[in-house]
Amino acid sequence: MGMGKSSHIARKVVATMASTGTPAFFVHPGEASHGDLGMITQNDAVLALSNSGETTELADMVDYVKRFDIPLIAMTGRADSVLAQAATVSLVLPDCEEGCSMKLSPTTSTTMMLALGDALAVALLERKGFSSDDFRILHPGGKLGRRLLKVADIMHGGDELPLIGGHTAMSDALLTMTNKSFGCVGIVGADGRLDGIITDGDLRRHMSPDLLGRKTSEIMNTGVTTIGPNAVASEAVQVMNGRAITALFVVEDSRPVGIIHIHDCLRAGVA
Prior knowledge:
rod-shaped, CBS-domain, alpha/beta, three-stranded mixed beta sheet, Rossmann fold
């Protein structure tokens, strides 16, 4: 809660807390006196911002939290103010002049409130163990959400995987490559591990009259570039760009669980 310029800072602190795993919302002190106090429960805590600590519009809120034993945190510039004295915890700002020429307009004080509010949000997210996975869940849209997409979120799996055995004829490998449309085929051993890969480039390099009759184990490359399902998708793009390839097999314990194509990343907005 806050009035005037403090209300704008309070709204930003609310947004930062909510986006980092601490549910929070703004209650306008004026509206609180006309029913919005019902938004505040005994399971909540109130963070009240007032540089002077004497904001009259906060009086009804103070009475309310005292009556129902709701924790009140004051962010104020005066330790001896009414708000600070009524609070469960007081966060007192340093005694600094406002930045304007008249030393009156809230500038320095609101900047300090904003910094302290951000610090509270960061402390809470660290205490909660809020992770990048949690952040991605709360930020599915925009650039941040796309940057945190995991390979597992956009990879192809199951029947879409272009996989064949090492003793398969190249004629069947060519059919699999054509049907799956990834420009490659993975070669798996009897234990299910990814032993090698054959790409469109390998077909061109081994082009001969007897190519389709040869075994995949004779043509495959054993130095397969792979990635894990929990890697971020942007890392997959970096690997593919660095190796000048367009697809990566996704493996767990050397066993293929998926495949990701550069087009999948582009469609998801990962670049």
